[in-house]
Amino acid sequence: MTNFVYISPAFPATNVNFCEHLAASGVRVLGVGDQPYEQLPERLRSALAEYYRVDSLEDYGQAFRAVAFLSFRHGKIDWIESNNEYWLGLDARLRDDFNVRTGHGTAIIESIKSKSAMKPVYAAAGVPTARQARVTDADGVLAFAAQVGYPLVAKPEYGIGAHGAFLLTSDADVAGAFATGLDVPYVVEEFVVGELVSYDAILDGEGGPVFEAATLWPPSIMDIVTDRLDLCYRIADELPPGLAEVGLRTAHAFGMRNRFVHEEFFRLTSDRPGLGRRGDYVGLEVNMRPAGGNTVDMYNYARDADVYQIYADVVTGRDTGAAAKARLDPQIAVYAGRRDEFTYRVPWADVLARYSAEIAQAGRNPALFVPQMGNDYAIIRTADAARADQFAADVTDRV
After folding, report:
1. DSSP structural state of residue 368
2. Partner of 399 for a Cys bridge, out of 19, 59, 172, 343, CB 3.0 to 4.6 A?
3. pLDDT digits (tens, 9 = 90+) for 114-138
4. Contact 243, 209 (CB under 8 A)
5. Domain locations in the chain?
6. Is 187 exposed, middle or buried (0-12, 13-18, 19+ CB in 10 A)?
7. Which pLDDT value is given to residue 223?
8. E-strand spans in the chain?
9. Confidence (pLDDT) at 228
């Protein structure tokens, strides 16, 4: 039997679905987390063959002892995974120490966590990227600005999403932003104008895609957080031309296999010397795990699919037909959210009534997700691009 150690199986909530599908596929799922067992969701407790609670997953010694105990109890560990950006480094270190070869180890973890270390890998893949500098103070930013000009984007080197990112448009912005120094390493990049699109895939043991999707993000998460905009994004019914090729080439350059990948690109809306021509893709950053928020659910809605089963099939090496089913009826899944602090053209109750036949999911976001995702949200599935656009407008148009 395959022994799968799932790190932090209760968070994010999508991990419960992964554990359920793995267990139903005959995998022995062994959990390691910091939540008391009795506080785990009942569905998760039913899926776990055993659970080892640690005081903190930040303490590597505790995590190591947990996996060692589970290995003693159940035999050789075949997989170690969290499907969580925050624990990628922990996953990799545990794989090295327990000789787990179904995923990457620490040798490449820096290249998928550090925004500066990603750059050489993109170059090896033949994917252009914006010029960048690692900075520690205002002088470093000003020196970079003298080379490439404004505007610039500043973001934590090891940040997740748009947390801590901001726009710099002048020397005065730099002086204000960096006046008190930086708590964490930062990078600054030249600003790229383009459509934000991501290549999302599940890769098998050879690095081949068994599931692919494209996520379109107008506007970017950084703009949403910094300008208090409303999040609206969609899973496209088909991949834009060239995205699969550049996305897969990028995944292979990073050495990815047996996992979800979520790779963000700019698709240039005009020619940009040094980067490419209109329609070309420019690498932004890679996230070698499932996309966050509701996006995994949206894969399923857009494809009438079960990506949790597709992933379980990769782990077991069996083919239940889940991947083939996901290719039969591609449609558009649209997420749109709004904030309590603003007034909107269409009342929320009217939105829910108007799209009731197409709504796949609706609700209120937890407080942790509100800055990026808004308070109220709904997701629809539709084959009609115009209907998708109208839904987005009805949710987000403010008075």
Report:
1. G
2. 343
3. 999 999 999 999 999 999 999 988 9
4. no
5. 3-103, 131-190, 194-396
6. buried
7. 65
8. 3-7, 28-33, 50-53, 79-81, 132-135, 152-156, 166-168, 186-190, 194-203, 209-217, 232-235, 259-268, 281-287, 332-338, 359-364, 376-382
9. 76
Residue 349: which of 375, 328, 376 has the closest Cα? 376
Q: Please, which pLDDT band fits residue 183 given cuts at 50, 70 and 90?
A: confident
Question: Is the distance from CB of 70 to CB of 98 less than 8 angstroms?
Answer: no
Q: At residue 159, does pLDDT exceed 80?
A: no
Q: What angle do CA 307, 308, 309 make, to 5 degrees?
A: 90
Residue 51 structure tokens: 């659970």
Residue 245 parent element (H or E): helix 243-253
CA angle 47, 87, 93 (to 5 degrees): 100
pLDDT digits (tens, 9 = 90+) for 336-371: 999 999 999 999 999 999 999 999 999 999 898 888
Tokens for 261? Answer: 């990948």
Q: Which CATH number fits domain 3-103: 3.40.50.20, 3.30.460.40, 3.40.50.300, 3.30.1250.10?
A: 3.40.50.20
Fold classification of 194-396 (topology level): D-amino Acid Aminotransferase; Chain A, domain 1 (3.30.470)
Residue 337 identity = G
Specify the residue for token string 């820096």: 110
Q: Domain 131-190 maps to which CATH number in 1.10.3720.10, 3.40.50.10860, 3.30.1490.20, 1.10.10.10? A: 3.30.1490.20
The per-residue pLDDT for range 281-312, each reduced to its tens digit, is: 999 999 999 998 889 999 999 999 999 999 99
Average pLDDT over residues 303-324: 97
Q: What burial class does residue 185 get, using C-beta atoms within 10 Å of its C-beta: 0-12 exposed, 13-18 middle, 19+ buried?
A: middle
Whether the predicted pLDDT of 396 surpasses 90? yes
Which residue in the block uniquely carries the two structure tokens 């075949």? 78
Burial class (CB in 10 A: 0-12, 13-18, 19+), 150: middle
Q: Does 331 have pLDDT greater than 80?
A: yes
